[in-house]
Amino acid sequence: MAGQQFQYDDSGNTFFYFLTSFVGLIVIPATYYLWPRDQNAEQLRLKSLRRVHGRCLWYRLRLMKSQQSIVPTLKKAALLFGWAVFLLLAYKVSKLDREYQEYNPYEVLNLDPGASVSEIKKQYRILSLKHHPDKGGDEATFMRIVKAHSALTNDESRQNWEMYGNPDGPGATSFGIALPAWIVDQKNSMLVLLVYGLAFMVILPVVVGTWWYRSIRYSGDQILISTTQLFMHFMYKTPNMNMKRLTMVLTAAFEFDPRSNKEATIRPTDNIEVPQLIRELGNINVKKKEPPFCYPYSLKARVLVLAHLARMEVSEELEEDQRFVVRKSPAFLQEMINVGCQLTMMANSRGGFHAPRLVTIENCMKLTQMIVQGLQESKSPLLQLPHFEEEHLRYCISKKYKVRTLQDLVSLKDSDRRSMLRFLGEEKYDEVMAVLGTFPHITMDTKLQVLDDEDSNNITAGSIVTVTVTLTRKRMSDIFEKEQESTCQGDEAANTEEAGDANKAKTKVWQNKSKGAKKAAKSKRKKLTKKKATPALAKTKQANGNVTGNEATAAAVAAKEEEDEASDKGSESDEGEANKDSPSERDEDSDKQSDTEVDEVAGDDEEEWEALQQSIQRRERALLETKSKVTHPAYSLYFPEEKQEWWWLYIADRRDQTLVSMPYHVCTLKDSEEVELKFPAPSKTGNYQYSVILRSDSYLGLDQIKPLKGKTTNTEQLIIVKQIIHTSTSSCHHK
């Protein structure tokens, strides 16, 4: 059996093949992903946003960073250097001679395969005379010619060449390793072992351990787990949290502590500048001894956030720290909302403790708006616009205009708006209108149904209700045009539109019935119940003398339900005549009615199945399509980072101050978005009124609240009772 031989590269030629491949595997993907090819696109994007966002802090910082940053230049230089090395190695490889060539005696003798022995001998004589060393030929070439002649003229050699590719028979299997021979040289063994040990036993474990230690400290949203636990502790401890307390909890996040985060800093000048800001801000609970609110990092972060909301000027050193704190705050507030939702779910499922109140979660949303816009809670939302100052608000809230919100400003006529804002001047007025025109105007449409029920429009107690909310985003500039068109029309048309909108709002409730129709149906049911409940009870008692009081009550309820269904279908007279017929006729009529009900239920099932399939398809499309979270840049004068327009959508019971559905963070609303909110219907029957609430996480004064009214019924229990009564009545008739 042939052995094996391992041959290392003594000359170093094959090592260049390995090195060229290795460098190519690094350089080519790195160029594709790291080449700063979007630098010009970013410049063009910033240029297109300059007219509207030119005064924003984040825009100026981004523009300055793009102009002064040398990172793209360094990336290009590193990638070009890698390509230079790769091309140099490729050129080196192309100049290397092939060391291994397949042995073919016919090629050595310049003969075609299958040549005869006479032809082989003749060619051998010619070549030997030409390449014989005594005749001045090459000795190596002559030896190859002799070997080829022997291989083709000797039967055994020829057979070995045909079977093994070698005239000498099977030889040792040779494996070439593309590494230099000095690596396995005994003289260099200690050095090689040292390098391997350092790489695989020191550097690699340290890198993996450091990455693992850092990763386990953070949650999926890159927030310290200790910070999440801190939020959960205080939200559990204080279910009803006001804005001042919420700010203290927010700024106690461990990301602001230099011991937990290297980005946070404590400067020697903080002992002078922070107390000065505290004196200017006033009462901010400095003397509170509750940890961690009394810690220096928490106090500094709280002062910087409050100074940002008050739009106070700070020193250059504190300004850098303030940008860091403000930039991190929206993500922490979103984490607080998530924690509040988790505690609410735990309270609903387990009980035993109080869930955070609705006001706490809504204060988190309001504080996010305030931090993005750099405004205090009591300030006017008009201050989000450029060139608006406190002294200008008196022109807006005067008795003549009464403009207090952005919607009021939009609804004004252009002439009145120009007259009110005449203090701005023509240039500033055009800029204000351009900014206001980019603000979002959201239209919210709701559709309520029960997907798992036979009647999707009937809300039964305890059923899972699905509210499909369709959000459509437009710009305020579109509203300007509509307002101008509406002013050209008469007051009667405007009143008609308002009445139509009011009627639509009334019909968009859980049950699509008007109040008059409900009252008429109730009156009919009462009359039919008084007339027909007693005969039904009498006939039931005659059929079965052992009917108890509970069964009689159940029979009355079932009879009432039958009459209610009959009144809804407009067949009161037919039911009255059916009650007077014989038992056999009544059974036949009931069978016909049951067949009709089965057909109706089958039709409802088909419609429900189609709706369910559409819902499943929508979810599958949502899973397959990864939507971008880049929607529209929010206009924020004092926020240090570009902020996208996002929204919170949820259902709440504002009377009980509780969440009905968990807030859904809408991060993909560019033009329109469809969101499904699910919640369990109340376990008790009766009328209920909830609210569908849409809140912005970027703007003040653009929140929307839409009422969601409905009535839950106990239909399932009535159907069970009716089946029991029908079964007992049928058995009595059979007897």
Structural account:
With 735 residues, the protein is of the alpha+beta class. The protein folds into 5 domains: 4-94; 105-165, Helix Hairpins, CATH 1.10.287; 185-213; 225-441 and 477-507, Sec63 N-terminal domain-like domain (Sec63 N-terminal domain-like fold); 515-605, no CATH class. Helices cover 57% and strands 10% of the residues. It contains 27 helices and 10 strands. The chain has helices spanning 13-34, 39-48, 50-53, 57-68, 71-94, 105-108, 117-131, 139-153, 155-164, 189-215, 225-237, 243-250, 270-281, 296-309, 316-349, 358-373, 393-396, 406-411, 414-420, 426-438, 476-488, 491-507, 515-543, 549-569, 572-580, 583-624, 715-734, and strands spanning 4-9, 173-180, 440-449, 464-475, 647-653, 658-659, 664-666, 672-680, 686-696, 704-712. The strands form 3 sheets. Strands 5, 6, 7, 9 and 10 form a 5-stranded antiparallel beta sheet that branches. A hairpin with a 4-residue loop joins strand 5 and strand 6. Helix 14 (296-309) packs across helix 15 (316-349). The longest helix is centred in the last third of the chain and has 42 residues, at 583-624. It is elongated, with a radius of gyration of 42 Å. It starts with a strand and ends with a helix.
Topology:
Layout lengths: L3 E6 L3 H22 L4 H10 L1 H4 L3 H12 L2 H24 L10 H4 L8 H15 L7 H15 L1 H10 L8 E8 L8 H27 L9 H13 L5 H8 L19 H12 L14 H14 L6 H34 L8 H16 L19 H4 L9 H6 L2 H7 L5 H13 L1 E10 L14 E12 H13 L2 H17 L7 H29 L5 H21 L2 H9 L2 H42 L22 E7 L4 E2 L4 E3 L5 E9 L5 E11 L7 E9 L2 H20 L1
Parallel strand pairs: 1-2
Antiparallel strand pairs: 3-4, 4-8, 5-6, 5-7, 5-9, 9-10
Helix pairs in contact: 1-5, 2-4, 7-8, 8-9, 11-15, 13-14, 14-15, 15-16, 20-21, 23-24, 24-27
